[in-house]
Amino acid sequence: MLCIWYYPSEAEAKKAVVFTVRKMNFLLETLQVMILSVYYNVEGFLRLFISARKKNVTGEIVLITGAGSGIGRLMALEFAGLGATLVLWDINQEGNKETACLAREKGAVRVHTYLCDCSDKAEVYRVADQVKREVGDVSILINNAGIVTGKKFMDAPDSLIEKTIEVNTMSHFWTYKAFLPAMMANNHGHLVSIASSAGLIGVNGLADYCASKFAAIGFAESVALELLSTGKDGVKTTIVCPYFINTGMFDGCNTKWPRMLPILDPHYVAKRIVNAILTEQAYLLMPRSLYVLMALKNILPAKLAVLLGVYFGAFNFMDAFKGRGKKQQ
């Protein structure tokens, strides 16, 4: 019997090895994903019943934009008793000083106020440099400043549309550019974006506002992934998406079903946000019903989504709006 032995070439042998390695990597990575998926689901379920441990922010430098009123002020007061150094930015100098006084009454020892128009890139960079010289490197950045025009798209002046994007979106780019390098160098810090439920789903009469908040969320998510991919896992991120808050910014807006989608109490919102920061929660939606609504948005047919929008009054939220581009939140 004649036997013919086949010896693969070097190139064919390398291809076989590469194929085998890729197959093993695929199996191992798939197994890893399956195991971790179970672990993270169990972890998430347990957190519904067990409170996460809160980090200590004593000595941390917390910068809050839009701190002169509303949610910005209330968050400052929440941090005041936690031993953090407060850096308060606002375009309203008197309101900012009042926040500082209230924070000191709440126990804050170091409070610094700065007049800053967050829509102005040059001013953000200038004031940021001043903060670094006078206070130090910011370790918790809370982008809270924002405005709303409350006009339908075709009725909104170009200048107000541009201002909405500049304050609600572009200012986040400039504050991150100013303070993120130090956080990355230390692999320590926290970036917080106070966005909106209007950044998750379009709202009739809020085209420019929704666009600005969608962009803010996308920006924050992208930077969070960049930090993870570069190994800077010590810099945490939190994205906050609340429904309308009773601060005057959306004065006159109403809700069709207040038990399911209530107009939120600002003190409750501020406490929830600070708790999310202390427990390093990646996303915070308020009220909890938003988690269900957002899940439905992604799986329902478009026509059914519109039907539910009518049911929940999404087309009439802004009918009685009385706000005038007020500061957030």
Automatic annotation (TrEMBL):
Coiled coil: none annotated. One of its GO terms (cellular component) is lipid droplet. InterPro entries: NAD(P)-bd_dom_sf, Sc_DH/Rdtase_CS, SDR_fam. Keywords: Membrane, NAD, Oxidoreductase, Transmembrane, Transmembrane helix. One of its GO terms (molecular function) is oxidoreductase activity, acting on the CH-OH group of donors, NAD or NADP as acceptor. The chain crosses the membrane at residues 299-318. The keyword Oxidoreductase applies. Belongs to the short-chain dehydrogenases/reductases (SDR) family. This is Uncharacterized protein. It comes from Megalops atlanticus.
